[in-house]
Structures are given as structure tokens and as C-alpha cells.
């Protein structure tokens, strides 16, 4: 549910003034000089702490100056001096929302609603409950405050709250009622289509989107095109149209980039992903950028964006760190990751760091579980390093049956056979490795 914009009640400039300095304070506030206005309101309150307009003006000035904690104190004081006035509780709730203190905001808005059940107060209460993770209570609050006179914004907030609370079917009549009143409300068409699709009514969802597109004009159409793309078997033209209509719609650019990346075109994906990231640096976009840069061999950028993706990017960051020669860091990044890919990379790094025993202990169960020939090749290399040549040969024979052109496997087989005293077989294995490009084998053979 969208948070309602912070809306302070208008200052009552037309009331009789307690002193000339109040008029000065209100003029400064109206002119946008919030720091001086706050000082002027403080002077007024020093003369008369019971002046309602000065308390309200001070809170507004402090908020607009970005001094949120001081604004909180000012409105809190206002509720203590005027406990039965709606304005102090309402504005205190708004400041608590901006401070990220939803529990306190809920209490303030509940008091405001009890004093005057305005649309603004109910929207503020629902926003606070949503921020506190209490979606069902947010929906119930908006239902309680619903009347036939409520605005389209209130109806949309109610539908969004019902959806967030898992009451999708209950949200549908609210959305249709809204759209009958205001058919140009793109957010309502988009949410309606989402609900219908989630209920298994994909074709009906597409029809409703087409109805919405016939009504909505300008940039808001982009959201409907994006939703239609998500339901379409051929999304790219719709995504391109949505992005052209609204370049700030990062999701469209992101999905275009993802499609290119899945198709193997990492270079073609980059412009779209970078545009999405500039518009909104979401973790999922950073993750896709890391994957694209890794495929392109730009390990420095892959490392950077994988780090910005948070925990989902840890494995990609480990891969990039390894490619940049940061092997110990890569090992640390892989800690706790039990996926086969992560374990395989960890085993490779342990081998390169000369920790063959640890590598074999890690790679053996991994190889036995999936018989991945590349894991087997690394396992065999560890066994050769530990002088367990017979075991290495058995694994390498299996690997080469699946990857007959794996140069490193032929090279390690040559080493194992030579150590076992089977020089003729060893030379043949080494020659095969050399022919496949193994520099180590070529060196042993004197090439």
C-alpha cells in the first residue's frame, strides 16, 4: 500500500494574533525560510506556551527544515498542551512515519481517528500499520473508515491493503467500484489484473488490461504495459513500449536486460540493466549486472555489483574474487554455502592453495553424489597431490569417458601412471594432454 503524502493541516493564518512576532513567524514559514521561522515560533512560545498556532507552526517549520526529531518533540508537546485537538496527534503520527517508528505512529493516528475520523487519519493509520507489518489490521482500519464519500485514493489504498492482507477476492469489488468512478486510474487496473492472474484468470486479466489501456493516457500506461508483458508469451515488444513511455520504470529495463542475459547476450543486456540500476539500485538488478559482467570477463565490475546485491550475490562475488586472485577472500565468501557449485569452487581453490587433503575431503562426496566430470577432475588432481595414484586413476578413467578432450585429466592421468611405474601408458596419456594444449604436459615431454 502506498504511504499517503505527509500532509500538515493548514496553519490558521486568519486567526487573531497573540503578538506581532506570530505574524512574522507565519510570514517566514510561508516564504520557505524554515530555520528562521522555527526561531520566531520559539520566541512566540516563550511568551505564551498555550498558543495553538505557534505549536503547530513550530512543528511544521522544523519538519520542513529536515529536523525530524525536533519536529517530533514539538508535536508531542502540542498533544500534551492540547490533548483534545486532532492536529497535534495527526501530525505527530506523520513525523513518526518518516522516522520509521510505526508503533508510535499507530498510537498517534489512533488518537487522531478517535478525535476526528478523517480520511487522512485513516490513511495515516493504515500506512503505520502496514509499515509495522500488520497488514490485516491496516485493511480492517480502512474498512472501518470507509464511507461512500471516500476519495479514489482511499478506495485504492483499501484495495491495496486487502491485497497485502491476502484478501484478494475482497479487493476485487473495491477495485471495480473505483474504476467505475475513475476509469483512468492506472494503479487500479494494474492491481485488478494482478489479482485476476493470481486467481488463475490470466485471459480475463489480459482483457482487463486492454480495457485499462484504452482508458489510461501518458506515462501511467507504462505500468499496464509492464503487467501485460508479465502475462504475455512475447513480452519484449511490450517491455520496450513501456520503457520508451516511462524511462523511470526500472522494472521494464530490468526485464529486458534479464531476457537478453538468458539468451546468452550479456553485452546486449548491459545497457538495459545499467539503466534500471541508475533508476533504482535494487539488489536484483545488481545481481543481474554481476552475472552479465562475470560472463563478459569484467571481474572487477562483477565483484562490485555482486557485493551490492547483498547475500544473493555472495556466490557471484566469490567467483569474481577468485578470478581477481583473491583466493582467501573467495573461500571466506563461500563459507556456509552448501550448493554443489559453491562446494566445487571451494574445492578448486583449496587445491590451488596447496590444501589437497581438505580439497579431497570436500570433493569426494560431491563427486560421488553427482558424478560431475569437472568435479572428478579436481578430485583426481587432489588425489595425485596426495600420492594416492590408484584412486586417482579410477576417477580419471571415469572422467575421460565423459570428457575425452579434458587436457588436465589426461595430464593428471599421465602423472598417476608414471608414479605407478606404467611408463608407456603414462607417455601416451601425456602426449594426449599435450595435443589438447596442456603446457605442463608439453614441458614434461620436452616440447
UniProtKB/TrEMBL annotation:
Gene3D superfamilies: Tetratricopeptide repeat domain (1.25.40.10). The keyword Transferase does not apply. TPR repeats lie at residues 52-85, 86-119. This is Tetratricopeptide repeat family protein. Keywords: Repeat, Signal, TPR repeat. It comes from Thermus aquaticus (strain ATCC BAA-2747 / Y51MC23). Residues 1-18 form the signal peptide. PANTHER family: LIPOPOLYSACCHARIDE ASSEMBLY PROTEIN B, TPR REPEAT-CONTAINING PROTEIN PA4667. It comes from the Bacteria. InterPro entries: CellSynth/LPSAsmb/PSIAsmb, TPR-like_helical_dom_sf, TPR_2, TPR_rpt.
Amino acid at each position: 500500500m502506498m504511504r499517503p503524502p505527509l500532509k500538515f493541516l493548514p496553519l490558521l493564518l486568519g486567526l487573531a494574533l497573540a503578538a506581532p512576532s506570530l505574524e512574522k513567524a507565519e510570514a517566514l514559514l510561508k516564504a520557505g525560510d524554515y530555520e528562521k521561522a522555527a526561531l520566531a515560533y520559539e520566541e512566540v512560545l516563550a511568551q505564551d506556551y498555550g498558543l495553538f498556532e505557534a505549536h503547530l507552526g513550530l512543528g511544521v517549520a522544523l519538519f520542513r527544515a529536515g529536523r525530524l526529531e525536533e519536529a517530533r518533540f514539538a508535536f508531542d508537546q502540542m498533544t500534551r498542551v492540547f490533548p483534545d485537538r486532532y492536529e497535534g496527534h495527526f501530525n505527530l503520527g506523520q513525523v513518526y512515519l518518516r522516522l520509521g517508528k510505526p508503533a508510535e505512529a499507530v498510537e498517534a493516528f489512533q488518537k487522531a481517528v478517535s478525535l476526528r475520523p478523517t480520511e487522512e487519519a485513516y490513511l495515516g493509520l493504515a500506512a503505520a500499520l502496514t509499515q509495522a507489518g500488520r497488514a490485516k489490521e491496516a485493511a480492517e482500519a480502512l474498512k472501518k473508515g470507509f464511507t461512500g464519500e471516500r476519495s479514489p485514493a482511499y478506495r485504492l489504498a483499501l484495495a491495496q491493503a486487502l491485497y497485502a492482507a491476502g484478501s484478494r477476492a475482497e479487493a476485487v469489488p473495491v477495485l471495480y467500484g473505483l474504476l467505475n468512478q475513475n476509469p483512468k486510474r492506472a494503479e487500479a487496473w494494474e492491481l485488478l489484473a494482478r489479482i485476476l492472474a493470481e486467481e488463475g484468470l490470466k485471459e480475463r486479466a489480459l482483457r482487463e488490461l486492454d480495457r485499462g489501456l484504452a482508458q489510461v493516457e501518458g506515462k501511467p500506461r507504462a505500468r499496464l504495459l509492464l503487467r501485460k508483458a508479465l502475462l504475455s508469451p512475447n513480452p519484449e515488444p511490450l517491455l520496450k513500449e513501456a520503457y520508451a513511455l516511462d524511462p523511470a520504470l526500472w522494472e521494464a529495463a530490468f526485464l529486458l536486460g534479464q531476457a537478453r542475459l538468458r539468451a546468452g547476450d550479456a553485452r546486449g543486456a548491459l545497457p538495459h540493466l545499467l539503466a534500471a540500476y541508475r533508476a533504482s539500485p535494487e539488489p536484483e538488478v545488481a545481481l543481474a549486472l554481476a552475472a552479465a559482467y562475470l560472463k563478459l570477463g569484467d571481474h572487477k565490475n562483477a565483484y562490485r555489483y555482486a557485493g551490492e546485491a547483498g547475500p544473493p550475490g555472495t556466490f557471484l562475488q566469490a567467483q569474481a574474487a577468485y578470478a581477481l586472485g583473491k583466493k582467501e577472500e573467495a573461500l571466506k565468501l563461500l563459507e556456509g554455502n552448501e550448493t554443489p557449485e559453491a562446494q566445487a569452487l571451494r574445492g578448486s581453490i583449496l587445491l590451488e592453495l596447496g590444501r589437497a587433503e581438505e580439497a579431497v575431503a570436500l570433493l569426494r562426496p560431491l563427486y560421488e553424489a553427482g558424478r560431475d566430470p569437472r568435479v572428478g577432475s579436481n578430485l583426481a588432481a587432489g588425489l595425485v597431490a596426495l600420492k594416492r595414484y590408484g584412486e586417482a586413476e579410477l576417477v580419471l578413467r571415469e572422467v575421460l569417458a565423459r570428457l575425452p578432450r579434458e587436457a588436465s585429466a589426461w595430464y593428471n592421468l599421465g602423472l598417476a601412471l608414471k608414479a605407478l611405474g606404467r611408463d608407456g601408458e603414462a607417455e601416451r596419456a601425456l602426449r594426449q594432454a599435450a595435443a589438447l594444449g596442456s603446457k605442463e604436459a608439453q614441458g614434461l615431454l620436452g616440447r
